[in-house]
Amino acid sequence: MTRPQLLIDTDPGVDDALAILMAYEHADVAGLSVAAGNVGLAHTVRNACVLVDLVKARTPVFAGCPSPLVRAPEEDAAFVHGRDGFGDVGFAAPASAAAAEQAALALLRLTRERPGELTLVALAPLTNLALALRLDPSLPERVARLVVMGGAVNGHGNTGTLPAEFNIGFDPEAAHVVFGAFPQFDLVDWELTLRHAFDEDEFDAWLAAGDHRADFYGRICQVARNTNRERGRRGVIAADALAMAVAIDPSLVLRSESRHVAVELDGRLTRGATVVDWTGRLARPANARVVLELDQPRFAAMVRRALGA
Ligand code: RIB
Ligand code: CA
Questions:
Q1: CA 257, CA 255: separation in Å to the nearest integer?
Q2: Phi, psi of 261 (to 5 degrees)
């Protein structure tokens, strides 16, 4: 069976790093387009290059937009990922560097060169995808699948306003553009992430297995694990890894519902919320396949293999 062909938009970021390690273990990676989000663009681009070096790949890295489309973000996620996005471990500068091509243009070019072949995996605020769509609205026709990590489908968010999840809340206008342009995408949200945590001891056993990828991830994830523990989040969670599992093998999805999902742009208390028409009352097309349950043992096996355990 041919390996999935992935185009990944990312803001590495600790859970992005685990997702990208999974991508290299289980798929082929056509490119990494990088967004600002967890931390600033300079850090996220550097971190993407650190990951490419770590797995000795030759994947092109494309720097994206340094800020959201309209409003400045209220906060980044350095409190989870460290000021440098990789747990403030202090890795040496990467040998590889970003390409000169802007991320939005690279997304358009790569999908023109490989129409219908690439699964687009969105692990970051959707700024780059929105810019690409504004430049070329035909982009969705050339994308085999879009998988988005984002949102909180029942309003249990993690940043900014109470119902907002970070990737959507950081750039709600971008999410509005993307959700309105793609007739169909898979949505892996924050609430699903919390339901698919790993046991701490089991995860630590994977990290202790001795593979260089496990050593790397064990170093960068400590700040995030401590923060999540302080916030009462059970087990080891990795939102982007969950989305990557769905992108690599959609058969892991045990339960989903196709619904219309929109993004709140103006609410003082709700800006960035993903609003789901669960009962179909608006009679609008269902643009999102909301993933509601995954095969946890198979998800765990995917992650474990990506850590060489
Ligand atoms: O809410 C989780 C998402 O926000 C993940 O993509 C994480 O990397 C952060 O970007
Ligand atoms: Ca991310």
A1: 7
A2: -125, 130
Q: Tell me the Ramachandran region of residue 156: left when phi exceeds 0, alpha when psi lies from -120 to 50, beta otherwise.
A: beta
* Per-residue pLDDT tens digits for 34-56: 999 999 999 999 999 999 999 99
**Domain spans of the chain, in order of start:** 5-306
User: How far is the centre of ligand 2, averaged over its atoms, from the C-alpha of 301 (Å)?
Assistant: 21
Find all residues with CB under 8 Å of 63, minimum gap 6, and list them: 34, 41, 45, 98, 102, 103
Pocket test for ligand 1, best of 149, 168, 189, 244 (most atoms within 8 A of CB): 149
CATH superfamily of 5-306: Ribonucleoside hydrolase-like (3.90.245.10)
List Cβ neighbours of 250 (8 Å cut-off, separation of 6 or more): 145, 186
**Ligand 1 centre from 122 Cα, in Å?**
10
Instruction: State how far the Cα of 124 lies from the Cα of 77, in Å rounded to an integer.
Output: 11
**Which ligand is closest in space to the CA of residue 148?**
1
Nearest bound ligand to the CA of residue 192: 1
Residue 126 is classified by DSSP as T
Q: Is the CB of 185 under 6 A from ligand 1?
A: no
The region that residue 276 occupies, defined by phi over 0 for left and psi between -120 and 50 for alpha, beta otherwise, is: beta
Query: How confident is the model over 203-239, as pLDDT tens digits?
Result: 999 999 999 999 999 999 999 999 999 999 999 999 9
Answer yes or no: is the C-beta of 190 below 6 A from any ligand 1 atom. Answer: yes
Distance CA 108, CA 123 (A): 18
Question: For the chain, how big is the Rg over CA atoms in Å?
Answer: 18
Cβ(31) – ligand 1 distance below 6 Å: no
